[in-house]
Design goal:
This protein is mostly helical and 555 residues long. The protein folds into two domains: 34-107 and 152-278 and 288-310, MetI-like (MetI-like fold, Orthogonal Bundle), CATH 1.10.3720.10; 328-555, MetI-like (MetI-like fold, Orthogonal Bundle). It has 25 helices and two strands. Residues 6-16 have low confidence and may be disordered. Helix 4 runs antiparallel to helix 10 (193-222), helix 8 (152-176) crosses helix 14 (296-327) and helix 10 packs antiparallel against helix 13. The protein is 76% helix and 1% strand. The protein has helices at residues 3-13, 20-44, 51-56, 59-90, 96-102, 111-122, 127-136, 152-176, 180-188, 193-222, 225-230, 235-245, 249-273, 296-327, 335-369, 372-380, 383-386, 389-415, 428-451, 456-463, 468-479, 481-497, 500-505, 513-522, 526-554; strands spanning 91-92, 292-293. It has a two-stranded parallel sheet.
Length: 555
């Protein structure tokens, strides 16, 4: 082999040089993916293999109930959200302007708060059944029939209504962006309102609606507060039962793998269903949809149809909790409330800053280097958002505990001092779970914001001698302030409401607002849970109002 050929072969065999931005992107991707991968490792290497026992006993029931919950919540949110989106986008009716924003309000309140309110209002000792007994002279539950409140249908109702805004938001955007010419042609050909919706509007909006329904179904699998309070056994409650009650982390990991496979199948089916469907809009400006004005009874029917989801999903639970908070005002002075609020602000705030900061570094690093490995890892890091909190709790705690014990043993061997658990005994595990769970929010916001910046600006800065870090600090960050602030707020609110991961990973004696609401409601102390629930709702309401304002500014 000649010297020239040998040098060329050596160049081809040389490992690609990785810069600091590529290394940072890969390190962040590893941080996000390790908890998910550890779940599969634990499932494949259990200390005690109870998989045959699970298959023969509880797993079929867990799986069946979870599938029913997913499909039920998806159907309810899909029908209600799509109908509301169509009415708001296509028609003009009394109260349309404020209802268009009010339909987002159920996002401000966690689903488990709605469950507590529903049971309190409709249970045997609640005002409805008490009023029925007083009105008709009934003396006990044997004298009349009343539906079981703590049941699977009630769980579907509560969770579905709380998640309807996901479908509504995407559906409204899809309907509003359609061309008004298509609807005018359909009307000229004799198509009525239902035909225009079914044959023109819905097919074009189907990808967006399907994406919203998929999010709803994934969030339904993640829920623990509602199904636990209603006594509904799902795969998520199975993780808690097998791990905490049975003490078998491997068995819990095997159930967690079933959830991950279920979520992966859902995402695959959703993408495959629209693989051959492609929709384009004309490159030139198109005429927007001209809203049809509804007057009289039809207008008020449209108002009522859009108001019902708001009343049931937001006004009702807030009213019940507000009544308890007013009647038992001493709950606001409970010593645990202030401590839980401080803990929530610190942990959720830290998670928001870390999540958005890491997402910004990773997205910017991928855009700066253009190397293949970081580009491949970038979309994979969003898998944490699809993983339920209980799965992430398992995936974070076990490897972190192993690392904690190894570090403590090393320090003990070198110094003779036992430091104890330095990671799992603190909120570090909780913050990491939040980062993995909501990394997709920060990544999406950073990617969208960077994509809106003209390439000429950073190129001009680089030509003047600015390095990548200086360009990010002086050019990109000032232009991305609004998107970063919104991402911080969304991650903060979602972390504040997160319950399954918090219950699994919180240090002993550590309460957040979410765990305080769950603990007090589980003890039937709704008056003590109401103040914390209202604080969560108020903070969530701020995020929803800012989101509604941002959506309104785009239209």
């Amino acid at each position: 082999m000649s010297d020239e050929n040998a040098q060329g072969f050596a160049r081809r065999r040389r490992w690609p040089r990785l810069d600091i931005w590529s290394l940072a992107a890969m390190a962040i991707a590893a941080l996000v993916l390790v908890p998910i991968l550890s779940v599969f490792w634990l499932a494949a290497n259990p200390s005690e293999n109870i998989w045959p026992h699970l298959m023969a006993t509880t797993l079929p029931r867990y799986l069946t109930t979870t599938l029913i919950l997913m499909v039920g919540c998806g159907l309810l949110a899909g029908v209600v959200g799509t109908a509301a989106a169509w009415i708001v986008a296509i028609y003009d009716f009394p109260g349309r302007r404020w209802l268009a924003s009010a339909l987002l309000l159920p996002l401000a309140i966690p689903a488990y708060v709605g469950a507590y309110a529903l049971v309190d209002f409709l249970e045997y000792a609640g005002p409805v059944q008490t009023g029925l007994r007083g009105l008709f002279g009934w003396t006990s539950a044997r004298d009349y029939w009343f539906p079981d409140i703590r049941s699977l249908p009630a769980a579907i109702l509560v969770i579905g209504l709380s998640l309807t805004p996901y479908v509504y938001l995407l559906g409204r955007a899809a309907f509003s962006e359609q061309s008004g010419a298509g609807f005018e042609v359909a009307r000229a050909l004799g198509a009525g309102p239902w035909a225009r919706f079914w044959r023109v509007g819905l097919p074009l909006a189907r990808p967006a609606i399907a994406a919203g329904v998929a999010v709803v179904m994934m969030e339904a699998v993640n829920d623990f507060g509602v199904v636990d309070f209603f006594g509904v056994q799902t795969l998520t409650t199975g993780i808690f039962s097998v791990w905490l009650s049975g003490g078998n982390a491997g068995g819990a990991a095997q159930i967690a793998c079933v959830i991950l496979v279920l979520i992966a199948g859902l995402v695959t089916i959703e993408r495959a269903s629209r693989r051959r469907r492609r929709f384009w809009q004309a490159p030139r400006a198109q005429r927007p949809v001209a809203r049809v004005t509804l007057t009289g009874a039809r207008g008020w029917c449209a108002t009522l149809a859009c108001a019902v989801p708001v009343l049931l999903g937001f006004v009702f639970p807030v009213s019940v909790m507000g009544w308890h908070a007013v009647v038992a005002a001493d709950g606001w002075l409970a010593p645990g409330l202030a401590k839980a609020l401080i803990n929530t602000v610190v942990v959720a705030g830290t998670a928001a800053v870390v999540t958005v900061g890491l997402a910004l570094v990773m997205v910017y690093g991928v855009r700066m280097t253009g190397r293949r490995i970081p580009q491949v890892l970038l979309p994979v890091t969003t898998v944490g958002y699809a993983a339920p909190g209980a799965v992430l709790g398992l995936g974070v705690l076990i490897p972190m505990a192993a690392l904690d014990n190894r570090v403590a043993d090393s320090i003990l061997a070198l110094t003779g001092w036992d430091p104890g658990l330095m990671l799992t005994g603190t909120t570090a595990a909780l913050v990491l779970a939040y980062v993995v769970r909501f990394f997709a929010i920060g990544q999406g916001a950073a990617d969208a914001a960077l994509g809106r910046i003209p390439p000429s600006l950073p190129l001009a800065a680089r030509s003047l001698g600015r390095g990548p870090g200086a360009v990010l600090r002086d050019i990109h960050l000032p232009l991305m302030r609004g998107s970063i602030a919104m991402a911080l707020l969304l991650v903060f609110v979602d972390a504040m409401k997160e319950l399954p991961a918090t219950l699994l990973l919180r240090p002993f004696g550590f309460d957040t607002l979410a765990t305080r609401v769950h603990d007090q409601a589980s003890l039937e102390r709704l008056s003590q849970a109401a103040p914390a629930a209202l604080v969560i709702t108020v903070i969530g309401l701020v995020a929803v109002l800012l989101l509604a304002r941002a959506e309104g500014a785009r239209r």
